[in-house]
Structure formats: C-alpha cells, structure tokens
Amino acid sequence: MTATPAGMTYADYLHLPELLSVQHPLSSLHDEMLFIVIHQTKELWLKQMLHEVGLAIGLIGGDRFAEAYKALARVSRIQSVMTLSWDVLATLTPVDYSRFRDVLGSSSGFQSAQFRELEFRLGVRHPSFLEHYPQGSEEHQRLVSAFEAPSLWDVADAARQRAGAPDWLSVYRDADRWFELYQLAEKLVDMDDALAGWRHKHVLTVERIIGGKTGTGGSAGVAYLQSTLTKRAFPELWELRTQL
Prior knowledge:
CATH topology: Methane Monooxygenase Hydroxylase, Chain G, domain 1
Mean pLDDT: 94
Pathway: Amino-acid degradation; L-tryptophan degradation via kynurenine pathway; L-kynurenine from L-tryptophan: step 1/2
Cofactor: heme
Pfam families: Trp_dioxygenase
Number of strands: 0
Function: Heme-dependent dioxygenase that catalyzes the oxidative cleavage of the L-tryptophan (L-Trp) pyrrole ring and converts L-tryptophan to N-formyl-L-kynurenine. Catalyzes the oxidative cleavage of the indole moiety.
Largest sheet: none
Helix content: 55-70%
Order of helices and strands: HHHHHHHHHHHH
C-alpha cells in the first residue's frame, strides 16, 4: 500500500470538509468564531502533545533517551505555540466577549479532559479531577487509565534508578558521568518551564478579558488560575537547584 494513493487530495487527506464544518457559533456575533477556533486548535495541539508524551514514555522505559529527547522537544515547541495563541485571543476585548459570553452556558476550559490527561501523563495527579467527568464516559475512562499508568516522571525516575544514580541531585553534580540522564532532566524542565509560561499567559489573558468575574464553568476564574501558577510537574528537578 503506497503512502500517497493516486487521486488523494489535500482536502481528502486532512478531512477538511469535516474539520471545517465543526465551527458552530451560537450567536450571530463576528467574534465568537475566533473564540471557537482558538479553543478547538488548543484541543488539537493537546492531542499531539499526548501523542508525543506517550511515545516518550515508551522510549524512556527502554532507555532510548536520544529518541525521547526529540519527542519532548517537540512538546516544548507546541507549548510555545499555544502560549502565543493567547495573544490572538487577547484581541477579543471585554466588550466583544461580553456580547456572546452567555451562549457558552456552563462550558469552560476547566473541563478540558485532554488537558487533565496531559497533567496526569506528566505526573501531576489530582484524583479530585476525576470527579468532574461522569463514570463510564470516555473522558473518565481515559483519565483513569492515565492516572493509573506510569507517568513521564515515573519512567524518568525509574531510568535514573536503573542507571545506578542515587538521586537527581547526584546526576546534576556529576553531569558528565550521567549525561543522558542530565539531558533528560533538562528536557523535562524545559517542558515544565513552558507549561508555567502558558499558565501565566492564560491568567493575564483571562484577567484582561473578564477581570475578576466568576468563570463560565463556575470556577473562581482568575483567582483559580492564579492558584495554579506555582504548580510544577517535576518539582524535584526545581528543588535540587537550590542545593547545587
């Protein structure tokens, strides 16, 4: 079977008719389309990040570090793109957004199952988030699977133990000896750094558009988002820096 079947078009390959037919503004207002496209795009990038993190977990489990670095670097680049997308959303003024905000009902980015799955896959596991999805639903099942499976941090730390390094501080103190592990740790910090930047820009964008209002999903809005700014996927790798 060939990779490029005869007669295959760009639109066929990407399923563009289907993809471009799922933007359905509920108001007649021009700016709602931007809001939909930004968030649908975010979900597509989250899908790709989960794809890359899943690959990296398998590669690290097999001590195939160089191949894993590529997947992890790709995740960091995707995070940069997602962070920049907040600047596009920020062109939506408070007045623009308030005109169609009511059509969102109780929907909220807080409900993104893929974002929670990504956190679980990285190693940020808060079982309370499982309660936001009905038992038996596809979202709940995927999150339970991610919650129970070895995370990126789990397999990275297991690789460190297999190599014989006593702890991550030792890896940093003798980076030449443990260079592959040292590089792996820095790739993880790159991702965590990018995720923190995404969260920070998210807070600024939401504050710029809705101020201190309650979120559409019932969350505390900006106040809740601000509470996540200190969250780290790999806190051990941040804490050891003080000890070097």
